[in-house]
Design a protein that fits this description.
alpha+beta, 32% helix, FAD/NAD(P)-binding domain, 2 domains, single chain, disordered N terminus, 5-stranded parallel sheet, elongated
């Protein structure tokens, strides 16, 4: 005869800590997979899916149109090996199909980024809220987790910030970037290792006369790399190629953000004071540029050097490059000495700049969202390297290898991708796998 305290037939209790991208995806997946389970999302703030809201300047860069798991995984400075297998289980095409089944169409832009066809992040937020409600997932806003302990029977006791406690059979931590907090201490007490945090995807500050007055100019195909410090044995960082934007503070744009991601830890170690080299022509070499200059000298000898030469370089930037090479305004190509030509080439394909700090990149929000009360500019990149050690997670289930029935999803793990929708895709993938595992366990 079953007694009143017998929980053998009680519905499974699943707790999701964090109402962000990974948390919602895990909750929805678990609730849809096991309709008998009680799935509850706990979000410390009063706002859910806050990063979804401001991603892509308020449009939400949902994912990227890269459908090969190996190639997709190569866009993650930390976590590529682990995500390669995970992407075989849930990748961008699955994400596209998932939203399509729920009435949300994604569109692909020229650089591979994918957005809702409404160009409004609220479309994604509304989809998640409606789907979660329909699946029966509960949402508690303004309630976070301040303590977590596992009982002898494998269940968990959750100490909540509203001074109450509850139990759960499975817990998924999807709070985003870890910071010093009661939750961090609770996870460490359970045996987990927290990899040091380091900002990723940020713009570079520079004070250099060569960029003064050029704010807003961009070069669509430039290459940038970190110059190794004098005396260091570290190899030169792999160059990143793509658009570079000159800002009033220094440099931003996809190439800069990618470099900041790949070099996140080393730049932190240097306290964000380092040198970079920019090739304004992307991958063109010195010999290729000299050949072009020889043709100009031979066929257009009377043309002034300061006249625009390269279609990919804005006129004002070219004039500044010529000025930096100490070439007079009235100097024609026929009078350009080899010595000065070498200096011009250096400024063109190996221009060195001293970086003096980082700054959060900003993107303008579309007009429709400004009308709804959003600020005209919002942080464009908000990713942090570090978090739960990847070796302590089974990426086939996203379950802890140390604490049974404890799962992780999203940025709380030491995984981060470059700009372009890759970080959200990692969240969708991790949330999906965790949700399935919790429902099936």
């Amino acid at each position: 005869m079953t007694t009143s305290n017998d929980t053998s037939h009680a519905p499974k209790q699943i707790a999701i800590i964090g109402g962000g991208a990974g948390g919602f995806f895990a909750a929805i997946t678990a609730a849809e997979t096991d309709p008998t389970a009680v799935v509850t999302i706990y979000e410390r703030s009063q706002q859910t899916l806050s990063k979804v809201k401001i991603s892509g300047g308020g449009r939400c860069n949902v994912t990227h149109s890269c459908f090969d798991p190996a190639k997709l995984a190569s866009h993650y400075p930390r976590g590529a090996r682990e995500l390669r297998g995970a992407f075989h289980r849930w990748q961008p095409q699955d994400t596209i199909n998932w939203f399509s089944e729920r009435g949300v169409t994604l569109k692909t832009e020229g650089d591979g980024r994918m957005f809702p066809d409404t160009d409004d992040s609220q479309t994604i937020i509304d989809c998640f809220h409606e789907t979660a409600r329909n699946a029966g997932a509960k949402l508690h806003k303004g309630i976070g987790l301040k303590g977590l302990s596992q009982c002898a029977d494998g269940t968990f006791t959750l100490e909540l910030t509203n001074d109450t406690s509850t139990r759960a059979d499975a817990v998924c931590i999807a709070t985003g970037s870890l910071k010093a907090s009661p939750l961090t201490r609770a996870l460490e007490a359970l045996g987990h290792t927290i990899e040091p945090l380091a900002p990723s995807l940020f713009a570079f500050n520079v004070a250099d006369s060569r960029t003064h007055g050029l704010s807003g100019l961009s070069v669509q195909t430039a290459s940038v790399s970190v110059v190794p410090s004098a005396g260091t044995t570290k190899k030169k960082a792999k160059p990143q190629t793509g658009p570079i934007l000159i800002t009033h503070r220094g440099f931003s744009g996809p190439a800069i953000l990618r470099l900041s991601a790949w070099e996140a830890r080393s730049l932190q170690e240097q306290k964000y004071h380092f040198d970079i080299a920019i090739n304004w022509l992307g991958d063109q070499t010195e010999n290729q540029v000299r050949e072009q200059f020889d043709k100009l000298r031979k066929h257009n000898g009377r043309t002034l050097v300061r006249s625009k030469v390269f279609e990919t370089i804005p006129r004002r930037l070219w004039e500044r490059i010529v000025e930096s090479a100490e070439i007079g305004e009235d100097t024609p190509w026929s009078q350009l000495s080899k010595k000065i030509e070498t200096k011009l080439i250096d400024e063109l394909i190996a221009a060195k700049f001293s970086i003096q700090g980082k700054t959060t990149n900003k993107l303008k929000v579309n007009d429709s969202l400004v009308a709804k009360g959003m600020k005209k500019e919002v942080p464009a990149e908000f990713v942090t390297a570090g978090g739960i050690c990847r070796r302590e997670i089974d990426f086939r289930t996203m379950e802890s290898k140390i604490v049974p029935n404890l799962y992780f999803a999203g940025e709380i793990i030491d995984i981060d991708g470059i700009t372009g929708g890759f970080n959200f895709q990692a969240a969708w993938t991790g949330g999906r796998i965790a949700g399935l595992a919790m429902a099936d366990s």
